[in-house]
Design a protein that fits this description.
By secondary structure, the chain is an alpha+beta fold. It has seven helices and 21 strands.
């Protein structure tokens, strides 16, 4: 009786062991299927799990078919790369190393946003050029014309005569989150065409002072390697959607500290809205006041004994402009536009550009050390080529 009980017990344990092994294998295969189907949404890793074949009942081994291993990064690059171009422009009348006048060549990156040949790139890539050529991923060259630009957003739209080209899929940059994997594609230094680098969303909503009296706002920060020549190239998510346009990199701070991995891109929602208006109108419309001005900060205020720490000093009012018609004068200091007070984080240009052309807005000023408010109907400025 005792031996029968021992044999029965060993039989039960053996059956349980085989069941557990089979269940684990089936469970592992089921988990892989879920990850594979949802990887574009969840993006837990840049490398998808290998396809696992059913357990061989004779050898009890897991067989991995390496030819089926894929990565979402590879898929995204294959989807986007044919739409990426190198943009080459010619700037006439530049001084050469020999001291004479000649043409200079500049280069950057871009990408097709429509099947009928429209290309998105940075304004600074084509600014000042008199001719533009784009080189496609297959090496073929196309001439392009500049449809329109917006220097403040650093966006330019080009048009080629190519038809039925591969265009990118534009994503939604408003839903980006820190830590998401991103892919940058472009032509660093103009020579290494369609270079792919990978990083993450380091942060969103960044602002960078351009040094020209305004800030580039709401930028995407990434640690994906971005170099000269990458400007205008796409920043891509793991779903193969363009969510930004690479525009600049910060190498060092004002204190001389050297930094790495500080790249910035224009959110594609911003670039798309700008490009749509340029394609429809041939230009991007901005509100216009009609003054020449000098920015005021605490150092300048102390130097000239000014009554405010922040604002802009009007050095000239252009005749017939909205500022002239509203009664603004040389020597006035603008301290606010609408409900926004000018300060360290609210520059004159950025605050003005929150308004729409044709809108009536209240301008807060200091005149002869007295606070005043003047209503102005803003005009429209067009940046055309």
């Amino acid at each position: 009786m005792g031996w029968k009980r021992v044999i029965y017990t060993l039989f039960v344990i053996g059956v349980a062991g085989v069941s557990a092994l089979t269940g684990a294998a089936a469970g592992g295969f089921a988990v892989y299927r879920v990850v594979k189907l949802d990887q574009a949404k969840l993006a837990p890793s840049s490398l998808a799990l290998p396809i696992v074949s059913p357990i061989n009942s004779e050898q009890n081994k897991v067989v991995v078919n390496s030819t089926n291993i894929e990565t979402t990064i590879t898929d995204s690059v294959q989807k986007i790369a044919p739409a990426v171009v190198t943009v080459v422009g010619t700037i006439p009348g530049q001084m050469t190393i020999f001291g004479n006048q000649g043409d200079a060549t500049v280069s950057g990156s871009g990408f097709f946003i429509s099947n009928d040949g429209y290309i998105l790139t940075n304004n600074h890539v084509v600014e000042g050029t008199n001719s533009v050529t784009v080189i496609r991923s297959d090496g073929s060259k196309l001439s392009a014309k500049i449809v329109g630009t917006d220097p403040y957003a650093d966006v330019a739209v080009l048009k080629t005569e190519a038809q039925s080209v591969t265009a990118v899929v534009l994503g939604n940059s408003d839903i980006l989150k820190s830590g998401e994997t991103l892919i940058a594609i472009g032509s660093p230094l103009g020579d290494f065409k369609n270079t792919v680098t990978v990083g993450v969303v380091s942060a969103t909503g960044r602002s960078i002072d351009t040094g020209n009296g305004y800030q580039m706002e709401n930028l995407i920060q990434t640690d994906a390697a971005i170099n000269q020549g990458n400007s205008g190239g796409p920043l891509v998510n793991l779903a193969g959607e363009v969510i930004g346009m690479n525009t600049l990199v910060v190498r060092n701070s004002g204190s001389g500290s050297v930094a790495e991995g500080l790249g910035f891109a224009i959110p594609i929602n911003t670039a798309r809205a700008t490009a749509d208006q340029i394609i429809q109108k041939g230009y991007f419309s901005r509100p216009y006041l009609g003054i020449k001005w000098q920015a005021i900060n605490p150092d300048i205020a102390a130097m000239y004994n000014l009554p405010v720490q922040w604002g802009v000093y009007i050095t000239d009012v252009l005749s017939g402009t909205p500022a002239d018609q509203a009664g603004l004068k040389q020597g006035d200091i603008i301290t606010g536009i609408g409900f926004v007070t000018l300060d360290e984080t609210h520059s004159y240009i950025n605050t003005l550009f929150q308004q729409n052309p044709g809108a009536s807005v209240t301008i807060s000023i200091m005149r002869d050390s007295k606070s005043m408010q003047i209503d102005v109907v803003l005009g429209e400025t067009k940046n055309t080529n």
